Amino acid sequence: MASQKIIPTKNLLLDALSDKSRLAFLGQCELVHFNLAQVIYEAGEPITYVYFPLQSIVSLVNPVDKNAGMEVALIGNEGMLGITLMLESKLAPFRAIVQGAGSTLRIEAKQFLEELKKCPELELRLKRYICVSFSQLVQMTVCNRFHVVEERLARLLLMIYDRKESVTFKITQQLLAQMLGVRRVGVSKAATSLKQKALITYNRGYMDIHDLAGLEASSCICYQTDKQTYNAMLEMYDDTAPLQQSH
């Protein structure tokens, strides 16, 4: 990965900090680029860097065997990778694979822990993010068990939109199948149904969302639940505006 000196952040966790705290932390970071399908961590590997996505999107996958796994979280500019370091766990609990190429900030794990000691404001906000992550992990488990593929696909596309801030993005049906933990034919059927409702089109690996409100209506309740959990926990004791906006 090529790297260069830092530019202003678009990561919501960092942007919520005071100017002084944010600038001090950014001074220890560098800007890097993630490529589509790039593996950032393998489950059980040491966490050498902590990442704060700006434009990239990363799936956390719980491996089942060498060829299969289930997505347990989707992280973009609302979050970070490597949060378990704060729990004194130095090994990655999940496989982290890039589902949306783009820029991210990174900081060495050791330096990250040093910065937490210097900045109580950052430490508090990231502790709240741990709570958010746990809640969303449970919600994802419930969603995978009780909701049909079409609802889950609609939810996933909305989550990608929120993080990319674009109604057009590149993604393959194979990647969608991996993220949802279903066979490709299941994704194809669900995508066809959403297309027939004039909510999306899909052609040559590119997804276009045409009706965000309609897609949200077709999604399971987990989409709004996740957003409400994020806002409620991250705004605790804050006087700032919501970190994520509903459509």
Write the layout of secondary structure elements.
Blueprint: E1 3-4, H1 12-15, H2 19-26, E2 30-34, E3 39-41, E4 49-53, E5 57-63, E6 69-75, E7 95-100, E8 102-108, H3 109-118, H4 120-146, H5 149-164, E9 168-170, H6 173-180, H7 184-196, E10 200-203, E11 206-209, H8 212-218, H9 222-234
Antiparallel strand pairs: 1-2, 2-8, 3-7, 4-8, 5-6, 5-7, 9-11, 10-11
Helix pairs in contact: 3-4, 4-9, 5-7, 5-8, 6-7
Poorly predicted ranges: 1-7, 239-247
Strand content: 15-25%
Q: Main beta sheet, described?
A: 4 strands, antiparallel
The overall strand count is 11
Shape: globular
Radius of gyration: 18 Å
Compute the separation of the termini in Å.
34 Å
- CATH C-level class of the largest domain is Mainly Beta
The number of domains is 2
CATH homologous superfamily annotation of the largest domain: Jelly Rolls
CATH fold-level label of the largest domain: Jelly Rolls
Q: Spell the H/E element sequence.
A: EHHEEEEEEEHHHEHHEEHH
* Multimerization state: single chain
Mean pLDDT: 87
> Biggest sheet: strands side by side, in what order?
1-2-8-4
Helix coverage percent: 40-55%
What is the CATH architecture term of the largest domain?
Sandwich
What does this entry look like structurally?
By secondary structure, the protein is α+β, with helices and mostly antiparallel strands. The chain has two domains: 3-120, Jelly Rolls, CATH 2.60.120.10; 148-219, Arc Repressor Mutant, subunit A. It has helices at 12-15, 19-26, 109-118, 120-146, 149-164, 173-180, 184-196, 212-218, 222-234; strands at residues 3-4, 30-34, 39-41, 49-53, 57-63, 69-75, 95-100, 102-108, 168-170, 200-203, 206-209. A four-stranded antiparallel β-sheet has the order 1-2-8-4. A four-stranded antiparallel β-sheet has the order 3-7-5-6. Helix 3 (109-118) crosses helix 4 and helix 5 crosses helix 7. 38% of the residues are buried. Residues 1-7 and 239-247 have low confidence and may be disordered.
